[in-house]
Amino acid sequence: MVTLLLLAAAAGPLPALGVVALTAAAGSALAGTRLSRLAAGPPRPAVRDGDTRAAARRRAARPRRVAALLDAAVVAAGLTAAVLPLADDAQRTTAAVTGLAVVAVLFGAGLAVLANPPQPPVRVRLRRAADAAGPGAGLALAAWLLLPRDSVGAPARLAAAVALGVLSVCALTALTGPHRSSGVARCRGGAALTLTGLVVLATLTAGTLPDRAGLLAVPPLVGGVLLTAAGARRALRPELDPPPRSTAVWPRVVVPAVAVVAATAWWLRSGLAPDPTAVLLALAVVPPLVLRELLRPRRRPDGGRAPAPLGGAARPGGAAADESAVPPAPPSDRAVGSGPTGDRTALLRALAVLRDVPPPSGALLVVDLHAPSVDVAEQLAGPDLAAEVVRRVRAVLGPGDLVADVTHTGLAVATDVGPMLAYALGTRLVAALTQPYQVPGAAVRLQVSIGLAETGGTAPEDVLRQADLARRRAVQLGRDRVEWYDAYLEEQLVRRLDLERELPGAVARGELDLVFQPILGLADRVPVGAEALLRWRSPVLGTVLPAELLPVAEDLDVVGELGCWVLDRACRQLANWTDSGRELWMAINVTVWELTAPDFVPRTAAVLDAYGLAPDRLVVEVAEPRVAAELPTVVARLAGLRSLGVRTALDDFRAEHASLAQLRRLPIDLLKVGPELVNRGTDASGPLIDVVVSVGDRLGLEIVVEELESEDQVAGAQRAGCRYGQGFALARPATAERVEAYFEEFPYASR
Asked: In terms of domain of life, where is this protein from (predicted)?
């Protein structure tokens, strides 16, 4: 509607001042209604510890006072614009200036009550002023060039130009800062825009200009009052504010530059003579730039920015660090060295400074040290070994990097270099900290795990959390390494933590389940057996497969519990099928850890006896890639199973030279291979499965090809002489009931 009225007034049918009055009154009425609801609402409780009753009442009534003051300012702005068409030509300027003054006072009072942040250090305030003065001078120059020079006197024109420059840069700063989505920033930006529109109205009404010039005041005036109302609700409920973001630098540079270029082009096109005031305003841009460079954070010798002092620092770009109000804490006793040191508070302050460096830069490294014994861990907590650790760290870092003590077994390093240089720094730290340490009576070596996270555009607490997640990943992958944080890593770690939390007690809660995949004879496609596959039906995490489940079970030392459950349920199901007259075998998978347990063979014999099963109906499979580490014990256990009559199988056979060499030592009956051995290679030697089948025939092994997913693979396995197969191309894994229904399609078959 506002756009249509502006177009109509610009085309000529409607009077411009009437459109200004109508749009401003409508916008103010809408914004005033929203603010009135906030002002008329019940007081919000905001009692704090130590408050007196009177102080609590004042704090609870504060939102209503803020809303009332902003409501009055918005209504006054609308009334100012509305009375201009009704006033005489001689009185319009007085009415506009009076309304401007009233609105400015009301906005100032409301914003003062709304937010009263602690004052940052003097250096921060000077930096803010320098950052704002340059764009402000440029916008004032653009206003001076565009404002009418004949109908408005030079003093009034200069005052209006300076006011427009100040208000415009205030709005720009509020709406591009790290808290630009917060309610307070929106209220400040809305107030600045509203006052900008009123300044334009007051200036234009002072001269003899065409009415259509007043339309320039409509966008900032209407947009300002609506933005104020929109920000008030969020400002009175800070919990709705989103987290801080990096400063939007480009609008602060582009908007003043475009305004100056456009105003200068219009000035030159008009053929006007050079103006001394314009020259002075142009020269006024230079001192803020010089002051800004003088206040720039210290630079390290290699060209990178050093973190600001721990007691409080300015963000490059004119904003103070979020943690600048936090009082500085004394350095930790354990964080010793020649460079900057500190604790968690100091670290968060340094990260807040690095977050908004344009362009965003910097990184955090969380260093964790792992002692080989309890005695060494106790010495690591003492002063001597801890001092040597930090001495080595300081020898690697630059003079501006911050070392902070934030963990019980390590430290954190905040650096302002880019991510690649930070990763290189992490590798140098690993090399330095893993060198042997001299302790009483011996030389010990510590293991090091380092997590790295970038600081640009991220809240300090989030950076610290991300770096710690990366550190945990480094621990899981074997230590003595640097791991880089990314979103996928966080998903993996969170998933891992969820698994570790939910897995204990899963057996007792009845959350485990077995599915069965039939094993078929390739010659006649008749089922001869089934493989039991474990599934964890977690009500929290969904269905978890063994590939994800078993590593967590090993770390939690519950593999034995899961293995006992699988053996019992698989044998129970096999007994049910045997009682119904089916002669099938049941294959179960065991880990090397389970197989090498001393009681595995007698426990298996006890389960078979409990269900009255013939031992040769059970097949115990162990994965080949993990056998080599415990080969003698594995051989002994497999031999013990075969002495019972239980058949054994080697799963996931890779057909490598080492695998073929150890195959002769393993007492097994079946060899399970993947489909990759069936696929024909690029040379003329044919598929590798021919070699495996030949070796199997010589050793008396039956070959089972698993994971067959196409008829071509099935045909290839059959041509090679493989007797058995399993996979989606033959039968999919299913519950016991579905597998029984599948078996009904075939006559009873023996092994």
From this structure: Bacteria
Please check whether residue 577 is in contact with residue 516, taking contact to mean a CB–CB distance below 8 angstroms: no
Strand ranges, E, within 539-617: 542-544, 585-590
Considering the domain architecture, whether residues 527 and 658 belong to the same structural domain is answered as: yes
- Which pairing describes strands 341-342 and 618-623: parallel, antiparallel, or unpaired? unpaired
Quick check: is 46 in a domain? yes
Say how many C-beta atoms besides its own lie within 10 A of residue 737's C-beta: 8
- Region class of 445: left (phi > 0), else alpha (psi between -120 and 50), else beta: beta
CB 671 within 8 A of CB 653: yes
Mean per-residue pLDDT, 227-238: 76
601: its two tokens:
């063979």
CATH for 516: 3.20.20.450
Tens of pLDDT, residue by residue over 580-636, are 888 899 999 999 889 989 899 999 999 999 999 999 999 999 988 778 778 889 999
Q: Which residues contact 543 (CB under 8 A, 6 or more apart)?
A: 535, 536, 537
Question: Greatest CA separation found in the chain?
Answer: 115
Same-domain check for residues 473 and 519: no
pLDDT tens string 731-749: 999 999 999 999 888 865 5
- CB-CB contact of 480 with 447 (8 Å): yes
- CB hemisphere CA count around 134 (13 angstroms): 20
Pairing of strands 647-653, 670-673: parallel
Amino acid at 527: P
Residue type, 279: V
The closest alpha carbon to 263, from 132, 131, 138, 136, belongs to 138
Which of these, 394, 395, 400, 397, lies nearest to 303 by C-alpha position?
A: 400
> Helix/strand/coil (H, E, C) string of 389-429?
HHHHHHHHCCCCCEEECCCCCEEEEEECCCHHHHHHHHHHH
Q: Give the angle subtended at the CA of 50 by the CAs of 47 and 52, to the nearest 5°.
A: 70
Residue 606 amino acid letter: A
Q: Which pLDDT band holds residue 649 (cuts at 50, 70, 90)?
A: very high
Cβ within 8 Å of residue 573, ≥6 positions away? 514, 516, 532, 586, 736
Contacts for 625 with CB less than 8 Å, ≥ 6 apart:
652, 654
Digit-coded pLDDT (tens) for 268-325: 777 776 678 888 888 887 787 777 666 655 444 334 444 433 333 333 333 333 333 3
Tokens 């690591």 belong to 380
CA distances from 284 to 128, 160, 281, 296, 545 (A): 16, 17, 5, 20, 69
Boundary-marking domain end, from 206, 226, 243: 243
- The terminus-to-terminus CA distance of the chain in angstroms comes to 84
- Which tokens sit at 17? 């001042």
Closest CA to 426 of 460, 486, 467: 467
Total domains in the chain come to 3
Question: Closest Cα partner for 305 from 354, 266, 352?
Answer: 354
**Structural domain contains residue 312:** no
Helix (H) or strand (E) holding 436: none
**pLDDT at residue 373 greater than cutoff 70:** no
Write down the pLDDT at residue 339.
39
Same domain, 111 and 168: yes
User: Do 477 and 530 belong together in one domain?
Assistant: no
Q: Mutual orientation of helices 249-269 and 122-146 as an angle, nearest 10°?
A: 30
Helices and strands (DSSP H and E) totals, the chain? 26, 17
* Separation CA 549–CA 561 (nearest Å): 13
In degrees to the nearest 10, what's the CA dihedral of 493, 495, 497, 499?
Answer: -140
Comparing C-alpha atoms, which of 461, 472, 463, 527 is closest to residue 494? 472
Which of the pair, 329 or 602, is modelled with greater confidence?
602
3-state secondary structure 305-364: ECCCCCCCCECCCCCECHHHHCCCCCCCCCCCCCCCEECHHHHHHHHHHHHCCCCCCCEE
